[in-house]
Write a structure and sequence with these properties.
Elements lengths: L2 H9 L21 H11 L2 E5 L10 H6 L5 E5 L4 H4 L5 E3 L5
Parallel strand pairs: 1-2, 2-3
Amino acid sequence: MTLFCRYVSELRRFIDLDVYGGCGRLKCPLSATELCLDMLERRYFFYLAFENSLCVDYVTEKYWGTLRRDVVGVVLGTADYSQLVPPGVHLDVRDFR
């Protein structure tokens, strides 16, 4: 189980989550990316943009996509996001117990 899936599994103990992709039951086909992003912006306040692997200074394209949308990206990675993006546009899970 990936780090992302383990984190999602733990988070589900406390809140309801809609999970798209490999760790969830919901799917969004690549052919409908823009439609899915539009839906994301209408239905959700937060978007979990976790890295597939923890590489120094790497930021997933999933996170960059949130910057153009009215959602807050919740990140889990090794990059120093506060040095890369404006304040207030992300939450880093490493800042919380």
